[in-house]
Amino acid sequence: MSGPAASSSSPTAHLMGVYGRAPLAFERGEGARLISTEGEAYLDCVAGIATNALGHAHPRLVEAVKAQSEKLWHVSNIFRIPEQEKLADRLTAESFADVVFFTNSGSEAIETALKLARKYHAAKGQPERIDIITFEGAFHGRTYAAVNAGGNAAYLDGFGPRLPGFIHLPFGDHEALKAAIGPTTAAILIEPVQGEGGARAVPDHCLRGLRDLCDQEGILLIYDEVQCGLGRTGKLFAYEWSGAAPDVMCLAKALGSGFPVGACLATNDAASGMIVGAHGSTFGGNPLAMAVGFAAVDEICKPETMDNVREVSAYLSQQLNGLRDRYPDVIVDVRGRGLLIGIKLIPNNREFMVMARDQKLLVAGGGDNCIRLLPPLTLTLAEAQEAISKIERTCDQVRQNAAKA
């Protein structure tokens, strides 16, 4: 017997109410522009939360979807999938890794990495090594183990007991980290640049220190590059700035540039416990996703793409720091790396986002009262200048509102 009908007054009445949605919908996009259902154009510096790395309706990706969709969408991982092998070859050639497991999302890539880390030690005769060390402000996804890894109470409260095996430490506390490592430690999991936690970049020397520590203690180093990887920081992978390669790395978001694709990359040694039957996925690595993923990676890897990220991000950093100097009553700090930019604010970040939307600029929220700029890697210098102008006008609006209060 059905219950009472939901109110039809809201267009989202029949959707589970887990999102705080902006009152805005889009019907099409091109490059860094989104066109609303009302016909208004917005400059998109959210890019699906660092996902549409090549912008909207990139012709190479559109062609990849069209071509593959006319041949084969899905089979099963009980068969070889040549498209999967092709993308794995490319990712390992461009990184530290030897092997890849394909998923549909970043959360699934994280789940794979967590299972891999425990399986690694169990296969080596140390099944007691189950503890994963993570850090305050981290975000590793919304699945059950991933939210326990992140440790954010807002995402855990009401979902029953916390999972054992996760140790959460303050960000940047080296002494606490050394003290936390013991005979049950399996791995350290960290974002080289935190995304949701407020766009905080881990200093290069700290990543090198983590690498040395993991080697000394015989534990795995796992990087979550779901948001900061694949060109976002101006190198293909964020860890390349430090030279401290991980044992395991999780990717998603830009990997399909809007199409659901994730991956867990690892060295042969780190993945040595992942034998037949240890893990699996129905949709992970299907031919359609792999065709889009390969096209996206191929475009992101082009020198001109990386050159553009470095040029545009340098301009944005310079200009945003200038705005911080001119609006100390609005902007506290500018942080991040490349085109993963955080702006820590004095006014409420959510209110600032609404005012930016009034300027036809889309920005993302973040922890520590930050907004994030996560534009396509293809954002032009002219579009970056436009974004700065819109942020400046938003800062002016904040001042005007404060004067009226």
What does this structure look like?
It is globular, with a radius of gyration of 22 Å. It has helices spanning 47-50, 59-69, 82-93, 106-123, 144-150, 153-156, 174-180, 204-217, 287-300, 303-326, 349-358, 381-404; strands at 26-30, 33-36, 41-44, 99-103, 131-135, 166-169, 185-190, 220-224, 248-251, 262-266, 331-337, 340-345, 361-362, 364-366, 370-373. The protein starts with 25 loop residues before the first strand and ends with a helix. Helix 3 (82-93) packs parallel to helix 9. The chain has 12 helices and 15 strands. It has 2 domains: 26-57 and 303-404, Alpha-Beta Complex (Aspartate Aminotransferase, domain 1); 72-300, 3-Layer(aba) Sandwich (Aspartate Aminotransferase, domain 2), CATH 3.40.640. By secondary structure, the protein is α/β, with parallel strands linked by helices. The strands form 3 sheets. It has a 7-stranded mixed sheet with strand order 4-10-9-8-7-5-6, sandwiched between helices. The longest helix has 24 residues, at 303-326.
Task: Sum up the structure in keywords.
405 residues, alpha/beta, Aspartate Aminotransferase, domain 2, 4-stranded mixed β-sheet, 12 helices, 17% strand, globular
Q: How is this fold's topology laid out?
A:
Layout: E1 26-30, E2 33-36, E3 41-44, H1 47-50, H2 59-69, H3 82-93, E4 99-103, H4 106-123, E5 131-135, H5 144-150, H6 153-156, E6 166-169, H7 174-180, E7 185-190, H8 204-217, E8 220-224, E9 248-251, E10 262-266, H9 287-300, H10 303-326, E11 331-337, E12 340-345, H11 349-358, E13 361-362, E14 364-366, E15 370-373, H12 381-404
Parallel strand pairs: 3-13, 5-6, 5-7, 7-8, 8-9
Antiparallel strand pairs: 1-2, 2-3, 4-10, 9-10, 11-12, 12-15, 14-15
